[in-house]
Amino acid sequence: MKQSFRWFGPNDPVKLNYIKQAGAINVVSALHHISNGDVWTVEEIKKRKILIEEESLKWSVVESLPIHEDIKKVSGSYLFYINNYIKSLINLSSCGIKTVCYNFMPVLDWTRTSVEKKLDDGSKTMVFNKDALNAFDLFIVNRKKAKESLSKKEIDDAKSYYKHLDSSQVEILTKRHYFWLARL
């Protein structure tokens, strides 16, 4: 087993030298700046690899190579996006990255409603709160048909959750998901 650490790229507040200090030798990363469905070129992959290798770390795992919504729904240009996905996998492999994780969740790719839940020991972790996601879906994004997919209790719980949010909490919840929404 090799100690690895997730890194969200150059804008991540966790710097590569912090990861190295923590004892990791491998990095799990992705090219978040590339839109879903676009090909990850060898040039872009190499740019990221060089950043990581300059800190004497190795980019060993991709998490994730996003799956375009058309593929998930088998609609629109899904065959085009499957071909782009295959090209991206080939490009990753040609750059020496052989392990690719993927998230096959609809719309948001992956969801955590907080990435800064403080634990008793002072460390932080990510958490998921269904009421928060439902409030986001119903009252912030105002997704059409959101109510159709929820029970009355889920809608009432989301409404109660949303009523207790102040503007800064709404902003945090929105930022948590905006990145993924912008890529759709």
Fold and architecture overview:
The chain is an alpha/beta fold. It folds into 2 domains: 4-101, Alpha-Beta Barrel (TIM Barrel); 114-182, no CATH class. 43% of the residues lie in helices and 14% in strands. Strands 1-2-3-4 form a 4-stranded parallel beta sheet. The protein has a two-stranded antiparallel ribbon with strand order 5-6. Strand 1, helix 1 and strand 2 form a beta-alpha-beta unit. The longest helix has 17 residues, at 78-94. The radius of gyration is 19 Å and the shape is flat. Mean pLDDT is 88; it is low at 178-184.
Question: What descriptors fit this protein?
Answer:
184 residues; alpha/beta; TIM Barrel; 2 domains; 4-stranded parallel sheet; 7 helices; 43% helix; flat; disordered C terminus
